[in-house]
Every structure is written in C-alpha cells, then in structure tokens.
Design a protein that fits this description.
Length: about 260
C-alpha cells in the first residue's frame, strides 16, 4: 500500500511544469498530497501532465501564470485555497537563466531574471505563508536555489545573484515564521541532468562528461533525486531545521 504521508495536504509549486518542479509534484502526489502547479505553459498543453498526477488518486490543478505579477500570484494562491484547501507546503521553484556575461547581458534580461527568480519567490511565499499565519496553521516552505548562489559563475551572473538573494530571503522568512511553526529551507543543487544543464548537455553531448569529471563524487543528479530531498525537507519529522541551505552539489562547492 502506498504511503499517504501527506494526505489531505495541498502543495503549491511554482515552475511546476519544469523538470524539477514536475518531479517534485510527482513525489508529493505519490505520498497523497493534492497538487497545485503554475508555470508559463498554456493550460491546454498541460492536460497530460495534470492527468499524470491525478493518476495517483489526488487532486491536481494547473494555471498558466507569470510569477513576476504579484497580484496574479496572490489570486492563484487564494483561488487554490478555495478549490483545494489552504496550502501547507509551498515550493518556490520557478526560475530562468540567461547565459551571458556581465558585459553581454542586457538590462532587460538582467531585470527579468531577478524578477522571476527572486521577486517571484517572494510574492509566492509572502502570500501563501501569510494565509498560514492568519489561520494559525503549521507549514513548510522550500526555495529551490542553486550552488551557483554560493560560487561565482561568470557565464550566468544574473542567475547567480538571484540565487544568492534567494538564500537570504530564505533566512529572513525562516526567522520571522519560526514562532508560527512554519519551517523555511532552501535546496541548492549542483549539476542536474535537467533544466539549463540538461539543455546544454543535449546540444553539446561532450559537455556532460566534462561536467561529471568536475564533480568530486563523479556523477550528476536527476530531477527526481532533487525532488526526493525537497520532500525530505517537508517531512513531518523535520521539526528543527529552518533557515538552512541544503547544498546538494556532489562536493562542487568544496573546490
């Protein structure tokens, strides 16, 4: 019998159609949670992915949403609450990355990247956790960061800066919400065979092997492995870990 650890709980996941977002949704659905996803994909194109989650016997909804629109994010959070109940687990995952150095990236690209990666995470967590505080409910928040937030990446400076900001947002939110039994943590993956790295490796197959050789443990992770650790941070038995960055990079940041 499948373990329904998160039965009757609702999980919000921004960037839910991306590799890590959808893998995370799948892990929570397997454990009985109802899932609310948002992303930029038109709703008609997300039907198959939604059905893939409802196959686990849970409710699932999807909304096309730009997380840089604070009012739209608030409407999504409150609309989800009406349909599925208040979300006790919030996963701020939406992100974008531009491969361009400091003197190549345009002001528009820089602004957009910080707006999606940092502002969007703030809008979601501010609204969703405010509802938990108002209702006197416990909760869990996980920011999906990156090891690029702790090590300089010259080819993706806007991404690195946004993820560094996410780390401090995590700490600020964690301190304020700790008395309300809302734990806030960040997971910071290294090389993942998904997302930006996955696209680069698909276009340049030889780059994947070069990347593997840079990692002390000599392997890269899958989106599913990241998802398992996100679920771990939300486990009911995790009662004391908050404001922490779970660096999951195979030792890359040690170099």
């Amino acid at each position: 019998m499948m373990n329904k650890l998160f039965s009757d709980q609702t999980v919000l996941i921004s960037g839910g159609i991306g590799d890590i977002g959808y893998a995370t949704a799948t892990e929570f659905a397997k454990l009985g949670a109802n899932i609310a996803l948002c992303d930029l994909l038109p709703e008609a194109e997300a039907t198959g992915l939604v059905n893939g989650l409802t196959a686990y016997g849970v409710a699932c909804s999807y909304q096309q949403l730009d997380v840089t629109d604070a009012k739209a994010v608030q409407a999504w959070v409150l609309g989800t609450e009406k349909r599925m109940g208040i979300a006790s687990i919030i996963i701020a995952n939406a992100a974008t990355a531009t491969q361009a150095g400091i003197h190549e990236i345009t002001p528009e690209q820089w602004s957009r990247e910080l707006s999606v990666n940092l502002d969007g995470a703030f809008y979601l967590t501010q609204c969703a956790t405010a509802r938990l505080v108002e209702m006197g409910l416990a909760g869990r928040v996980v920011f999906v960061g990156s090891w690029a937030g702790v090590k300089v990446h010259p080819h993706i400076p806007a991404y690195s800066v946004s993820k560094a900001g996410l780390t401090m947002l995590c700490k600020c939110l964690a301190l304020e919400l700790a008395p309300h039994n809302i734990l806030v943590n960040e997971i910071a993956p290294g090389y993942v065979a998904a997302g930006l790295s996955g696209r680069v490796w698909k276009e340049h197959p030889g780059e994947k092997e070069k990347s593997i050789q840079k990692v002390p443990v000599r392997q890269v992770m899958t989106a599913e492995e990241v998802a398992v650790q996100i679920v771990y941070l939300c486990h009911p038995q995790n009662k004391h870990m908050t404001g922490a960055t779970f660096l999951m990079d195979g030792g890359l940041s040690l170099l």
